Amino acid sequence: MSTIYQAKSIRTMDPHQPHATHIAIKDRHILAVGTADDIADWQSAWGPLEVNTDFAERTLMPGFIEGHAHMMEGLLWDYHYVGYYDREGPDGTIWPGLKSIDDVVAHLKQIQDTRDDPSEPLIAWGFDPIYFQGRRMSAADLDLVSAECPVAVLHASLHILNANNFIMDAADVKNADNSEFIRRDDSGQPTGEFLGQLGMYMAMRTTNLDLLAAASSPKTLQTFSQVARQTGVTTCTDLANPVPEGAEVAMRETVEKDSFPMRLVVAFQGNSLPPEESVARMQALQDKQSDKLRFSLVKFVADGSIQGFSARLKWPHYYNGAPNGLWYIEPDRLREYLTAFTQAGFQCHVHTNGDECTEVTLDAIEDALRAHPWPDHRHTLQHCQMASRAHFKRMKTLGVGVNLFSNHLYYWGDEHRAITMGPERAGRLDDAGGCLEEGVPLAIHSDAPVTALAPLFTAWCAVNRLSSTGVALGGESEKISVEQALYAITMGAAYSLKMDTEIGSLEVGKRADITILADDPIVVGAMGLKDISVIGTMVDGNVHLNQGRDA
Amino acid sequence: MSQTLPLRSAQKVSLTIITGFLGSGKTSLLNHLLTQSGGRKITALVNDFGALNIDSELIEAQHGNQVSLTNGCICCSIGDDLMRSLADIMRQDPLPDHLIIEASGVADPTRIAAYAAVDPQLRLDGIITLVDAAAHELHAQDPYLADNYHKQIEAGHMLLISKPDLVEASQVEHLEAKLRASHPNTPQARVRHGQLPIEVVLGLKAEREIKTTTPLAPHIEDHGLASWSAHLHGNLSREVLAEKITSLTPHVLRAKGVLRDEQGAYALHYAGGRIHFENLDVTPSGHFVLIGKPELPNAEALTNLFQPTGS
Ligand SMILES: [Zn+2]
């Protein structure tokens, strides 16, 4: 079917024709972009074309691209959301933010009292105690939900877990050796809070549930794509996946369906195998790709997180004096991997949070490129939250792109000012303005499920640089304009995935991936970006309307 | 409902963590340990099978990320998810006797050890830190890794000085002295090409193992360790024995024996600077073994110390 969609406004992200009102779609691709005046020409050249006015009062944009998210977002909706902020579920339900520990307990208690089998483990996620003035959740709190079944609450960071006494007893934690990863109260008793992956491990051991399994099961993929659709995302990454033998086939079966509303770019977890085997696995995945499923990236995680005090920072390190963070992969090993994948011609995305890690990664990339020159490698630094202007200049020279974690400004901005970085360095956290001024290709991301998947919100963060309490981080030089932010969530991300010839803008010949918005972001302006309602999307020209919205 | 595991009552698995920088010899050590398991069912979680280079005659089967050896040991690759790999192993039935985790070069071993704290079926036996004699200065001053390096040494229940043959003897001694000064309570040993009796490395904290392990190999060569074994007769009180062993520090690393005194039969176990006694319900064999550095007194002096004539 060939169709002309009429819209109130079309923001194309194509500099030749930034604004339009009509777009023609044929065979999954964009046939033409223009105005009512062009329709007659289109009809005579390619007609007959049906004119569709379903979105005549809407704004169309290139489908949003989330360059850094995780499929786990799809898995977690099997459990219960208990975050501080409202969050939209895959079916369009808005789960209201829970503003106190008591609210969390009451919410879970209500679920416990009404579910079919109250003896099953009760798992919740998205919890973040930093907003509760120092009060931490305890096992006793969760015993109020139930003391008769396992109750576990996973924090937003995914690196802390609270358990009730049922789990603690099963794991015999009272008699456990001392460990800095088990939080204890003043009298030395474990509080029920476990750091790192300890809590997750304990919950898995005591419930026999594999909490993180089935990360590529059809159901998880479906949920993931629904969350994406609700927020206008038409291409989403899973950064990263070890893609065990056979997983690629299973994924493709689900993703290929026209009813599946998303293109999926899976980054292969590079260090899940030794370098040579890893390159071979990546090569083997290449002919398993399709229009909607890509195995085009390799991902490495080089350090931890800033808020988890595990990012590798340069002197003077953490503002509160915490010891420097952790390498998740040895710098020499990282160099070895990057060299192997550069030689083999695969684009690498490297998670670097702290500035020391960013520097070490740039060193490794430079070494890899000296050995195997490759002008258009587009290796990309992910998060890269503390990069300085000097780092951006170096990225520019090396041809390295960046995908900044702009949502951090809002969710952890206050914490970065007060605890992790101090006001001065927090001011240049996720410096999108500096990045663009130095000429480095920019994308911005949510790292869902760590923060909510919602490109317009991410754009709002990069444009306004406000923390959740309204405190500004940095000044004008770190901000970007609304236009630049919209570019970052479309063409910027497409470039970072080497898909900018296919998607990212609405221009002739590209795939018909479109986001349908209730309002025009350029007209709404900086402060309103995050509140624009997403009506639905088109992927390959197939319309996917959101639930919970009037079309 | 999904089953909740009775974790407390079940069998226990001893956990040994081998830590050390890339190239410090973790793999050779592990390889050597697996070939002399002495009847223990050991599962090893490693970063890279290939590097392990297991003798093909020893391999019974390979499935995906798991290799089974003919001696009952199993080797699994960690991939990039230690937590998941560990959970998978702890779900196996039957469980291994001993689990050895090869930590990645930059891992903080205390983070790995923490798993044992929340898993009643997992008991931390010890953290073995490999210190590369040839690269020590480099690592200790590495601008990016020095803090990691010191953390690993700090965490070690035993420090193994690897590659002593690659540097001047005086340099090794200097390194050992330095480590002894900063970590006086952490035993040290030298290891070449990973060759070290398994008893030196496993069982640092073991209480029950003493009853089941096979006797030590009588001749220990090429790893810079000395051993002495004897049959001690008659009553030997626990206090006196403890004193005698302690008098041999820092040259003694391990001691074990099945002995008796006025209170009855007991097993003695000394490792990591700690002495442990356990009451036994058997007729004691009197078997006694010491493992230590070359500086241990000679056999005659040891016989005199532990079984002076006339006692
Ligand atoms: Zn991520």
Give a verbal description of the structure.
- The complex is a heterodimer of chains A (551) and B (311).
- Chain A is of the alpha/beta class.
- Chain A has two domains: 73-207, Diaminopimelate Epimerase, Chain A, domain 1 (Roll); 218-503, Alpha-Beta Barrel (TIM Barrel), CATH 3.20.20.140.
- Chain A contains 19 helices and 24 strands.
- In chain A, the strands form four sheets. In chain A, strands 1, 2, 3, 4, 5, 22, 23 and 24 form an eight-stranded mixed sheet that branches. An eight-stranded parallel sheet of chain A has the order 6-15-16-17-18-19-20-21. In chain A, strands 7-10-11-12-14-13 form a six-stranded mixed sheet, with helices on both faces.
- With 311 residues, chain B is an alpha/beta fold.
- Chain B folds into two domains: 13-201, Rossmann fold (3-Layer(aba) Sandwich); 226-306, CobW-like, C-terminal domain (Hypothetical Protein Yjia, Chain: A,domain 2), CATH 3.30.1220.10.
- In chain B, a hairpin with a 4-residue loop joins strand 4 (66-69) and strand 5.
- The chains are: A alpha/beta (551), B alpha/beta (311).
- At the A-B interface, helix 6 and helix 10 of A face helix 3 and helix 4 of B.
- The complex binds zinc ion.
- Zinc ion binds at residues 68, 70, 239, 447 of chain A.
